[in-house]
Every structure is written in C-alpha cells, then in structure tokens.
Amino acid sequence: MTAFDLQTVRRELHQIPELGFEEEKTQSYLLTKIQEMATDRVEVKTWRTGVLVHISGTNPAQRIGFRSDMDGLPILEDTGFDFASTHAGKMHACGHDFHMTIALAAMEKIIAQPIKDDVLFIFQPAEEGPGGAKPMIASDEFLVWKPDTIFALHIAPELPVGKVSSKPGLLFANTSELFLDFKGLGGHAAYPHLAKDMTVAASNFVVQAQQIVSRRLNPLDGSVVTIGKMESGFVQNAIAETARLEGTIRTTEASSIVLVKDELEKLIKGFEIAYDCQIDVDYGSNYYQVVNETKYVDQFKNSLQHTDITYVQASAAMTGEDFGDMLKEIPGFMFWLGVDSPYGLHHAKLAPNEEALSVGVEAVETFIRSFD
Ligand SMILES: CC(=O)N[C@@H](CCC[C@H](N)C(=O)O)C(=O)O
C-alpha cells in the first residue's frame, strides 16, 4: 500500500503532458509529491526539468539507480477519458505517466524502509526527443550520485497485466531521427513542366528509402526506416515548392546506422539531380541500443519468484530508448511491464490498464530489495 492513490497520481500526471525539456509542471508536481514523503535520509536535486532523489542506505556498499522518463508526445489524445490531456495536442502516449507514478510509489516504500545500499530515483526529461539521458549523466548533479547499477521499465501494451518481460543482451535498437527539407520550384498546377514539384520528389523519396532496408542492408540485421510525417504545398491547384519529411532510422547493429545514413546521402544526391532540387538532411538525436547485463536480468527474474508476477522472456524490439545511453556507461537492464492496452505505444487511444501500476511498483521494489 502507498500513502497516495496510484490511480489518482497517474491520472493527474496524464493530464499535464509536456514535451522534452519543457516538463516544468511535471517537475513541480513530482517535487511536491517527493517533499510529502521526504525524511532526513532523502536529498533532492533538480537538473534542468529533471529530478534526482537520493535515499541514503543503512550501511551502503553501492548505489542502485531506477530511472523514469517524464515527457509526453505531440499527439492529439483520442481516448475520450475524463482525465484526458489538458494540454492540446500533447499526450502521454508512451506511458511515461505510468513510469513516473511507479517510481514515486516505489520511492515511498524505500524511504519508509530503506535498504542497506543507497538508492537513486532518476526522473529524466526528453526521452522522446531530443534525448535527456546523455546530458543528464554527464551533469555534475548526476555524477555526484552516479549509481553502480541502473534499471528502468517500459509499459508493454501487448503484454497482459501481471507479466513482465526482459532478456539478456540487446532489448532495444539504435535510433537516429531523420529530417529532410526539399526545395524545388513552385508553380501553377496546370504547368508541371515549368515547376519542380517537391510533392512528387518527396513521395518518391519515401518509397526509395524503403529499399535501403530491403536491398542495401544485410537481411540478417534488423533495420527500419520510417517516415512518420510528410508535409508539402499550400493549396490543391499549385505545385509545391517545398516538402518536409520527418522520420526515424532503427538498426539492431550500431554500425548499421552509419550504413543507412551513407545510403540516404547517396539517394539525396541522386534526387537532387533527378528532380533538380536541393535537399537538406538533419539527423536530430541518436540513441544507443539498450543492452541488458545478464547478471541483473537473472537477479530480476529470481527476485520475482516469491511474488505473483510472471516473468517471460522478451524478444528484441525496434523501439529506441535513450536509457541505452545510460546503460552504455552504467551496467543494468530494462524490462517491459504488461499493461494490456488494445492500442499500442504512440497511439492516440493508448489505454494502459491501471491495475498494472501496483505490479510495476512491486517489481521495482522487489528488485531493489534483492540487493539487501
Ligand atoms: C519506447 C519508445 O517508443 N521510444 C521512442 C524513442 C524515440 C527516439 C527518437 N525520437 C526517434 O524517433 O528516433 C521510439 O520511438 O522508439
């Protein structure tokens, strides 16, 4: 049991989603909750819009870190919930409201009954972009409390409530954002021969880019090029002078990200000639793969044996997570928490089952106590 209601906290957080490094309301909400549960063992630091909470152990030999991300997505919520987002066009569509609620509740339990070791709860901004993990772990605020091991969870819509899953080794892919700006020549819709149509150029680019995955990369290595957003033109009867594509590259091999970028650049050169246009590319933020340390995955799995939580073996996924950048520096692992939603991550109707909140709290607390 916690002193606060998990569902209420999750719903209050759900109503105030904020984009990366804009999480001011979320930060102040978390700080209020943390103050309510703080004792003289607890120290709090802020880093940009993030929060670090250090709980001194009774006889510390090491420090265990648990990380929750904080940001929402630029998605217009379509759940119909009476606790839907109050921030127009923004939504907790990746479950970070769940992650933060679970972190707060697990923290409350560790404060109430500290373990031997120190524990650090990390609320990290900007996971969806531009990436808060890398700058956070390089900050003085983090380095003074750098954990010896670190772990995190992510909600899994396709997994039933009561189940968690993970695996040793690769869990999530390498990622790079992709932004392409096309500049041609606009004109009247009736005179295509006098214009350089960027709707046609960008549309063909989307199709051609798919062949990098199917024809240039080793089919045994996983890779994805997804264009999630496409914009061009202003009106139905004018040829578009500009177009913009926004997407993401995913690969299971760190080195394949470079290969995909090389191939994209060849394509860009070809398109600039073929469509007589200019194409500018920007790769935005890049996240390193999430690689789990076997010993901690085993410890997690074993720690759950005396609970009702079922551990199942996961497969690697092409999702990305800047937690990979933390795991590159600090050994640990990440696990999926079953939330049984009919709609998936990043869907405007994502509806995780709130019964999974207490399962998440139990899994996190149980793993932390397994160091005792
Ligand atoms: C778990 C999850 O859904 N993470 C995001 C991370 C996004 C990274 C970046 N903005 C990109 O799109 O490359 C994901 O989309 O996998």
From TrEMBL:
Q: Which SUPFAM superfamilies match?
A: Bacterial exopeptidase dimerisation domain, Zn-dependent exopeptidases
Domain Peptidase M20 dimerisation: residue ranges: 180-269
Superkingdom of this protein's organism: Bacteria
List, alphabetically, the Pfam families matched.
M20_dimer, Peptidase_M20
Residues in a coiled coil are none
Query: What protein name does the entry list?
Result: N-acetyldiaminopimelate deacetylase
Species assigned in the record: Oceanobacillus jeddahense
